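Translate sequence into structure tokens.
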Amino acid sequence: MATARKFSKEILKHLDKTYPESAFKATFVDGRWRRGRFSGRRQAELRKACLVNQVDSASIGLPPLAPRSSNFQRKPPKGHKQQRTYAEKQAAIQKNLDDMPNKIKKWKDDLAKEKHKLTPTLPF
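Result follows.
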């Protein structure tokens, strides 16, 4: 801790006593859940007070901290749809550009056929 920490007298007097585990965790008694005597915030204050005053937190009955697991699987960022489909769209555009001469030739042939259909067979 970078700054000096002042703890209330109430917190400091808890460092002299020993508490059962039920004081820190919720317990199921007579068909009902009973909350612990100390909230999570108070437990954190007690831990910090123990560190500052060189008192072992286990000596007052505080349960050990659960190790933080960092092995959860992170999803890659989803991104915007425009960015996700950009490569596919560019591939489709390039494929259409490569096929464009054939499409133009087919269009011109179809246009010529339609024009030929419209010309009358009679000479007048």
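Note: The helical segments are 9-14, 40-52, 81-84, 86-98, 100-118.
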